[in-house]
Amino acid sequence: MTGVPASAAGGTGKPAPGGKLGAAAVNQASLWNIANILTMLRLVLVPGFVALLLADGGYDPVWRAWAWAAFAVAMITDVFDGHLARTYNLVTDFGKIADPIADKAIMGAALVCLSSLGDLPWWVTGVILGRELGITLLRFWVIRYGVIPASRGGKMKTLAQGTAVGMYVLALVGPLATFRFWVMAVAVALTVITGLDYVRQAVVLRRQGMAAERGAAAEQ
Q: Among residues 5, 120, 197, 219, which one has the fewest Cβ atoms lying within 10 Å of its Cβ?
């Protein structure tokens, strides 16, 4: 028995052409949508970005400019892949997993490389990456009770981080070099503030979920 109605099989009572293989082909095709392709492009850009940033000792302005271009492309695709996935119903399990990995990979690679070159204090890298790791663990902590949506503060944090890191990737001097310090200071402040707010929301969500479970158990 195939479980396929005769009408679905063309009225002959025979399974539709392709059967399970046809369904698998459809599922496989859905993976190769524009949103996922942009996410994969961002993943591929990570090693290329690192190679460009560290080329010729990591201090050549030309190579740094090319590294900035790669970083900028990654940041732009980060904006568009999520928007396209939500707008055109292209959300897939692959995208849900790969998108945050790609985001953290390009940002983490940039921060570690900049700190290793001495351009950025290690404590800044530690604060930003520590926040991202902590939030990831928090998501697993509350995942059975729900998902905390992205806030406006979180989006501002992402924009500030991308702008600040991009400015540090470029070999800036003079007033621009001073200005990027203050942009990074804003990014770090937003990183800490939004991280603490996420912790608050996670605790509230978990408490509400546990209370709802206890209420449901009491009614049984």
A: 219
